[in-house]
Amino acid sequence: MLFAGRAAAQQVTIPVETQHNAIVLQTDAEKHLNMVYLGAKLANTAEYAGISKMYKQADDSGVQNDAYTPSGSASLGEPAITVTHADGNKSLNLTYVSHTVSKVDDDISLLVVTMKDPAYDFEVKLYYKTYFKEDVTEQWSVIKHNEKGIVTLDKYASANLNLKGNTTGGFWLKQYHGNWAMEMQPEEARLTHGIKTIDSKLGTRANLYEHSMFAISMDKPATEDEGKVLYGAMEWSGNFRIDFELDVANNLKIIAGINNAASEYHLKPGVEFTTPAFLYTYSDHGKGDASRKLQSWARQYKIVDGNGSRLTLLNNWESTYFDFNESKLAGLLKDTKKLGVDLFLLDDGWFGNSHPRNGDNAGLGDWQENKQKLPNGISSLVKEAQANGVKFGIWIEPEMVNPASDLYKAHPDWVIKQPNRPEKYFRNQLVLDLANPKVQDFVFGVVDGLFTKNPDLAYIKWDCNAVIYNAYSAYLKKDQSHIYVDYVNGLYNVLKRVRAKYPKVPLMLCSGGGGRVDYGALQYFTEFWPSDNTDPLERVFIQWEYSFFYPAITSSNHVTDWGKQPIKFRVDVAMMGKMGFDIVIGKLSESELSFCQSALKNYDALKDVIWHGDQYRLASPWDNDAASIMYVSDDKSKAVMFNYLVNNRYGSGTKVPVRLKGLDPNKKYRVKEINLYPGAGSVLGKEDLTFTGDFLMNVGINPGNSAYHTSVVLQLEAI
Prior knowledge:
The chain is of the alpha+beta class. Helices cover 19% and strands 29% of the residues.
């Protein structure tokens, strides 16, 4: 225990510091806890105590700086928490009681602040988990009471941040929207007075239309290398709500948590309600620095085996869809070996007998091998894969059910649906009720059964294609407003059990594309599927935006037949993450196959830099004819630079050198173009060139993107 404080007459100041940043909490005369600062760390810790004097305090307009704003008492802004007490009273007043700071290890600290209502036996604890080197904070709340009866939580946010009013430049919000095959569409605008809300009410696939991550720039929109910016994201795979309230004093309040719409939660005495974590990081060196902090944090602490390796693969989906049998798959297994990837992934369509899965309208829930397609079962395919020197993986969608299934007929009470309304389907399916422990056991059993029968199974692709319509749980009975919260917690219970038994088996997080990409889910997965849109030109933009929040090692990028780009362009784009293929190998020309095999060897040599190195965005596809992005190893001895022509109009291309980043200015680097198509010459004009890091970062290099060189990959090695 490093520090413990208890309420007293004097002001209590609590600085929460990381390597470069600080959050400062402070009590006022009435013992209310305020957040008075979030920004760059001060050199003198003692000076934090004087911050509040530099700002106007609460006035008659009701402006407050609450660290966790309650409703119904003296705070008049948007609340972080709203309750209905056991006696029906809806007011809440939270005052500071005490705090503790404990050191988890050399990098991680945990601050816990206890607040209570003086009139009711009601308590909120605020948790701030800080990662010193990465400048990342995870924040959540734990709510408990000992009143004589049920207390209803009407709103229960994870975090409440306050950013002080700045210059006339104000605050700028960068948010994301999308749809199927249109994930991560960015918008940036200045926040105006009032409340801006980003939210989801879809139940599952919660990020389908709005994404639960954002960036706030201060004074003006931050660039890649300049400006003050805060990145934030919910670690929650269900309905979320993030409020941005700009008050009359030009302060910005950010309240983030579970969406309380139709989700009031009934809390019994003595029971703790823990909200999901909200994570954030701040940088005064632009969006690039902030994103590298998040990526480093994710690899080190959040994603499964973030500092480890990944498997390249060949998927059968776009080559066969539902139409396959053992003979076809045997040929694809041979193609997997011929191509040179690690694993073959069998996608949708392998299960169901009474209701065979020959399309998306039947079979979900009946997870037995289809005897007509696979008379010898999955185990024979696993053995066949091993005979070809590759691993075997499989697709599942265990949270879902088709009405045309044995499971639906046997357990209609396991399905989320209103008892007195017509069923409404999304992709011909409904969602299983994971609030029900029996359903959790069933879903875990789907995964466990596959591994029990096939111990050498090496990969799972976990899909989730439907949203929740007509929300109703037969299990929850009168507590129907709990369904959206209990569903996600039920899903996490299943995933915890899977990871406890199979701690490092690679799992891909898929949701009809990127409909469920958040760190709440990713803590159980090794990678995610950014989008079903695999057109490589579109993927340049989609992967660019995901890179602000997620490291390259998590991004599953597949080479497919989507789009009009040549095979080289498609392969190069897929290399910027966890690479895979979803094409018919037999239809490749000899030169195309030779190129893919050679590119895989290059990828094998560079994957450690791509997966674990620092990522730098050099030229944005939104602003230029060509996009450039690079990855640099920790010791700055290796780097790789990807360049793509994204505007193919006449005369377009890279006109001036692109300045590189992250290199050692004193090192000399050999620059070589790789992934050359058979018979093609290098844009560099010779096999390789040598420059200092100083030259490359201040003068740059022209990758030569043009109509003849739409995709260029440059490898850098220190000599």
